[in-house]
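Ticket #4471: structure export looks truncated?
Reporter: QA, pipeline team
Priority: medium

Steps to reproduce: submit the single chain below to the structure queue and open the exported record.
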Amino acid sequence: MKSSPDIATRLDTTLATGAFGDGNLLAADRDTLVAGQSWSLRRPAPVERPASGLEALHRIAERAERDRAGADVSFTSLTEGDGDEGAATDPTCPAPWAEGHRAWFVRDWDHARTGALLRVTRQVMDFSGYTGAIDGHAPDHRDGDAVSAGVALLAEALPRTTAHTLPLVRVLCVLRGEIPSMYLTQVPESVFLSDGLLRTHSPLVVGECLLHESLHEKYTLLRLVRRLVRPGQSDTTGPRVLLPWSLTMGERRRFGANRLLSTLHVYAHLTALHVAVLASAAHRDHHAEARTRLTTNYERGAYLAQALRFPEIAGHLGPDGLRLRDWLTEDVLGPASAAGAADGMSLAPYPTGTWNREDLVSV
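Actual output as written to the record:
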């Protein structure tokens, strides 16, 4: 059996290569798609490599505007208020990010661009049933230090995966609210973090949240440029699978094929992160926390991998979706389980007790 450090290194390489892991390849495919959309709409293509936070916000708004055209539900445009006084000023400041790549914090929420961004965020969250307050927060040095520590941990634990995931995000929005972190498809290339997360949690948790939300952007790109689900697939009208751990939170959440695959994508990566942290003596201070989080992420990821093999669900996956499921299951969760065993951990899918497939799947 390979040692945990060897497995961690192999996982890092796996998650940064190939059709699903190579972030540079995905970014190139994304930009080709966006250029084609721009040509068909007879509009200039968004700048590919923003030199400032304001340019990044313009790019995000342009990408969102193209995505809104085919959305079932449309929210306020991120370009709203562009003609307002002061719209040409830059409402951002540099944020610590992956080596060799630039990202920016939103520092001024009264700017036309960031005000529109905050309105869309509130609209999306209100539509989803969230009733809490959401307000913009201007990050200070403590917030920057927390992000820097989280990014540094990721770069040390999974250097290749970090380099092929975080650069897909350009803007970090710090909010005052109850949700530690989130990603919205309506605001691409951006992640949202709470000031509470940055002020009260360890670098491991901050790093996990940064990776988690950046992976949603990566999956969004996969959804755009790979055939993950069959044409016409819908998570709202198609078959869905119960997430049994949601019952412990007072909810009964059910996901369709696309969201099951997206969530497996996240949990498999987070499993690899905690395997890598546990394999490194440099992260000894985080080992106890990493063991707990490894168990949780593996349990959920392995359950989702099983659910994506249910015939009712697998039939809604496209050819690339089937390959992505198998890649995450066999090349990520499989080695992670072996690493856990080498460290005396018995990792297993989330227990479903006496439930059968009919209890878990709603058609």
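Status: closed, not a bug. The export was complete when the record was re-opened. Leaving a note from the reviewer for reference: Residues 319-342 form the longest helix (24 residues).
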